[in-house]
Amino acid sequence: MSLSFTVTERSDRLPDAEREAILADPGFGKRFTDHMVRATWTRDGGWHDAQVTAYGPFQLDPAAAVLHYAQEIFEGMKAYRHADGSVWTFRPEANAARWNRSAQRLALPGMEEADFIGALKALVEVDKAWVPDSTSGEASLYLRPFMFASEAFLGVRPAEEVTFSVIASPAGSYFTGGLKPVSLWISEHFSRAGKGGTGAAKCGGNYAASLAAQIEAAENGCDQSVFLDSLEQKYIEELGGMNVFLVHKDGRLVTPSLTGSILEGVTRSSILELAKDLDLEPEERKISLEEWRADAESGEITEAFACGTAAVVTPIGRLVSTQGEFRTGPEGEGGPVASKIRKALLDVQTGRAEDTRGWLTRLA
Ligand SMILES: *Cc1c(COP(=O)(O)O)cnc(C)c1O
């Protein structure tokens, strides 16, 4: 059965001029639209009380299981306004499928793809005015579906009451004035995820586990951390919230194969599919840090980049560890392959190029 969302529009929406001022310089994840989606699941009643309502705080019992045992998952996607004013999102079926895989791993209830996408549509329909114009850039409305154990119970078992929500936040260009390569700290003390753990699920706990490494990165003058496999501390896995690609001089585009502890990014899989169109040869396999270092130093690897919904494609400039550092791409604005891939993805997402793969779904 599919869910229908009861819409209760607030009468005190943010005035147009104030909303426009936010859209002119939204930053990331700081400002939220007028409304949100909420729904409740109970073991006995399934999903119910699906609604679009005024954005505002949850009332949570201090014993809510999520606050103690972190039973929570989320997703991240973007809505783009095309030239004709219509609003579209990118491969939401892939996010819905990943949502259900994450839910299963965290012992949370599943949701039908139609309901998951229906929730996005219901919210964007009401808050359509918050979707920035993306015809000449990459501004978007970032959509954040999430669900958590809201049952008040301190026993350890899957919660029997769960809250689902979607919030939305306008996002500007991640990079203003050209791509800026990030520097990465190679985390030797901390792992993000291990064999049999939750690394392949999009859950808040993985992010909590990555923060100490993030602090270490900052202390060493780096922007982000890159994590190695937890077993041997030898093979590249990913960043705290982005997958990694290496570009070889012969056109091979290599990314770590999925191990169970790497998050399967929608951007990652889209780049693997797009590669051929761009005269690149995609390859998924194990990549050791040593190989990365040697091939970057010899010039065999010409560029490296990270990818994910939020920043699309981000060039990687330097890698730093206690052993020293090496450069893995050109100085300045990053390499041509990262730019080409970034443009190809954004052109489809924003409607500047034809959507030949049926990747777009209209939200409003
Ligand atoms: C969300 C996420 C990514 C990127 O996934 P996309 O679907 O491309 O946005 C990569 N790694 C981690 C750990 C993530 O949580």
Q: Tell me the name of the CATH homologous superfamily of the largest domain.
A: D-amino Acid Aminotransferase, subunit A, domain 2
The total tally of domains equals 2
Fold-level CATH name of the largest domain: D-amino Acid Aminotransferase, Chain A, domain 2
Residues in β-strands, percent = 25-35%
Explain what you see:
It is built from 8 helices and 18 strands. It is an alpha+beta fold and 364 residues long. The chain folds into 2 domains: 166 residues, D-amino Acid Aminotransferase, Chain A, domain 1 (2-Layer Sandwich), CATH 3.30.470; 168 residues, D-amino Acid Aminotransferase, subunit A, domain 2 (D-amino Acid Aminotransferase, Chain A, domain 2). Strands 1, 2, 3, 4, 5, 6, 7, 8 and 18 form a 9-stranded mixed β-sheet that branches. Strands 9, 10, 11, 12, 13, 14, 15, 16 and 17 form a 9-stranded mixed β-sheet that branches. The radius of gyration is 21 Å and the shape is globular. 42% of the residues are buried. Bound molecules: pyridoxal-5'-phosphate. Pyridoxal-5'-phosphate binds next to α6.
Q: Layout of SSEs?
A:
Elements: E1 6-7, H1 16-24, E2 35-42, E3 46-54, H2 65-69, E4 72-74, E5 77-81, E6 87-90, H3 92-105, H4 113-126, E7 140-149, E8 161-171, E9 182-186, H5 204-219, E10 224-228, E11 236-239, E12 243-248, E13 252-256, H6 266-274, E14 281-285, H7 289-298, E15 301-308, E16 312-321, E17 324-327, H8 336-349, E18 360-362
Parallel strand pairs: 1-3, 9-10, 9-16, 13-14
Antiparallel strand pairs: 2-3, 2-8, 4-7, 5-6, 5-7, 6-18, 7-8, 10-11, 12-13, 12-15, 15-16, 16-17
The structure holds pyridoxal-5'-phosphate.
